[in-house]
Each structure stands twice: as C-alpha cells, then as structure tokens.
Specification:
Length: 110
C-alpha cells in the first residue's frame, strides 16, 4: 500500500565501495518518524531513522542544501512510502520517492 507524507529530513549519507567482494552503492535519508509505542512504558516525540533510496549519486541532487543542513535545519520533504507486511504483526516502510517541499521564496521566483 502506497502513502504520501510530508516528513522532516535531517541528513543524507551516501556509500559506495566493496566489502569482502560484495559491492555496495546506496544513499540513506535520515527522516523523522514517531517514536512509537512501547509495550512496557510511555513514549513521546520523534526520532530519525535511515531510509535507503537510490545509489550514491542521489546525494548530488541535494548538495545545494548543504549549508541549510550544516546550520542544523531540517528540510521538509514530500515523500512516498510503500507499506509492506513484515514478520508477525509488524509493517515496514520503504521509501519510494523524496523531494524537498518548495519554499515560498523558490515558488515566487518561478
């Protein structure tokens, strides 16, 4: 099942290389998610969780925002997720697409 959501993006990391004969090439987007329920206590707030999306070149599309991230400011993004069944009663989210939400300044310049 696919779903759309606006999510805060706190950071991006790319990785490419070879580990013991196995090649890897990916980018992780660190997105805010609800802390979630605990069976033995209470929770409030958000945490970040890495979501893999694209190969290591994906980060190049976001480099124009590096000063924004360096200032400690998250970026609001439109995301599409796929919700798939996991083991037991769990469900898993897979990131299908991500784009920064246009700012008022950028929209006025268009």
């Amino acid at each position: 099942m696919k779903m759309q959501s606006q999510v805060l993006l706190f950071g991006i990391e790319s990785s490419k290389g070879d580990f013991e004969g196995t090649a890897y090439d990916s980018t992780k987007f660190h997105l805010s998610v609800d802390l979630g329920k605990k069976g033995n206590g209470k929770t409030i707030g958000l945490v970040t969780r890495p979501f893999k999306f694209g190969d290591s070149t994906e980060i190049d599309k976001w480099m124009h925002l590096s000063a924004h991230f360096a200032a400690g400011k998250p970026v609001l993004c439109n995301c599409e997720f796929d919700v798939v069944a996991g083991s037991g009663n769990d469900s898993k989210l897979a990131l299908l697409s991500i784009q920064p939400v246009p700012t008022a300044k950028a929209a006025a310049a268009s």
